Amino acid sequence: MIVAAIRTEGLYKVFGRRADEAVRRLQEGASREDVIPLGATPAVIDVTFDVKPGEIFVVMGLSGSGKSTLIRTLNGLLIPTAGHVYVGGDDIAALNPAALRTLRRDQMSMVFQHFALLPHRTVLENAAYPLKVRGLKKDERAAKARDALAMVGLDGWEDKLPQQLSGGMRQRVGLARALAAETDIMLMDEAFSALDPLIRREMQDQLLELQQRLAKTIVFITHDLNEAMRLGDRIAMMRAGRIVQIDTAEAILRKPANDYVAQFVQDVDRTRVLTAATVMEPVGDGALERGQPTVSPGTMLADVFSLSAQSPLPVAVVDDDRRLVGVIRRETLLSSMAAGDVAPTELTAEGEVTHG
Ligand SMILES: Nc1ncnc2c1ncn2[C@@H]1O[C@H](COP(=O)(O)OP(=O)(O)OP(=O)(O)O)[C@@H](O)[C@H]1O
Ligand SMILES: [Mg+2]
Q: What is the pLDDT of residues 138-147, one digit of tens each?
């Protein structure tokens, strides 16, 4: 059995007064609104999930839904009001302060929305900072920091100060700092939200590319659905402190757990999320026709569509060995691109968790 990189179990974080009583009432079925008159602000309510090693787990939700509070309980910056957080199998509530600091330093790094760079330190010093905290020798720090800066395309910028860099470059330094720490887990809270759309997309591409090589466990918080869908192996949809669905982007589009999620995703460009595998008609065995356009199962529908426009033949879906596994006809393609065909399957009670 694979131990989850991170696991939360019945996690609650309630701010304000009478937090314990608020949790008890919530556990007995009270709603968030019911307990607010106590003077309590429930930010995270009964959250349970597993993050698998090597996955990008996105937490998505509107402002105030509890995302930052949740991520801060994962690295012990906030103490849960109730419930558990396990990192690599260890309950972090059971760690003493020294062990918790070690865990934060050696196993997790964080990338913030507003970069959080030291203004009077060079790019290199900023990237090397966590290694300094860990007590590495100067040469070793510099070497690792240089490598990390090179990974994010910042070689040659080592001696500059943060203020000499654009926003996108500053966030690359933030990312390099997290990479230099060589932790297995990266926590990213709205890390790309302060960047303009083009740069933001570049950073997303870069993260995906790095992830191919490094296979970190990443918890990535965003309030942008398109970003969630692009980056997440799985997405946890949060609403008012609760997780209402955990699924792949595809599953969320095809089977939203409730009306709220359905409304949320209705404007998503399906052609950039759904893949050939999800709409193809499977073929047991068969041969490719001459001149037939081919795609792999993971090809986005947008790309299938442009290929399909160039040929009268149905698009063939082939595996890595170029064996035919399915076909996609133009009619199928057109109908699956329409938002209307993915009706919410079943309305679940609000707040009910659907595990993917
Ligand atoms: N330190 C705190 N003390 C009291 N209430 C807090 C504290 N931190 C957060 N909250 C409240 O908890 C709720 C969740 O806030 P949180 O910052 O986790 O949301 P978020 O999803 O990260 O929002 P955003 O997208 O705006 O960053 C909000 O109602 C917020 O006001
Ligand atoms: Mg936040």
A: 999 999 999 9
Counting ligand 1 atoms within 8 A of each CB, the residue from 12, 69, 193 with the most, and so the one to mutate, is 69
Q: pLDDT for 107-158, tens place per residue?
A: 999 998 887 899 999 999 999 999 998 889 999 999 999 999 999 999 999 9
Judge contact between 81 and 73, C-beta under 8 A.
no
What pLDDT shows up at residue 342? 38
Q: Is residue 185 within 8 Å of 216, Cβ to Cβ? A: yes
Under CATH, which number does the domain 1-52+62-102+221-268 receive? 3.40.50.300
Choose the residue to mutate in 47, 68, 77 for probing ligand 1, maximizing ligand atoms within 8 Å of C-beta. 68
* C-beta separation of 144 from 128 below 8 A: yes
* Residues 244, 215, 185, 74, Cα dihedral to 10°: 10
Q: Is the CB of 41 under 6 A from ligand 1?
A: yes
Backbone angles phi, psi at 112, to 5 degrees: -105, 165
* SS3 of residue 238 by DSSP: strand
What residue owns the CA closest to ligand 1's atom 9?
69
| Sign, CA torsion 272/303/335/246 | negative
Domain range summary for the chain, segments of one domain joined by +: 1-52+62-102+221-268, 270-321
State the amino acid at position 125 in one-letter form. Answer: E
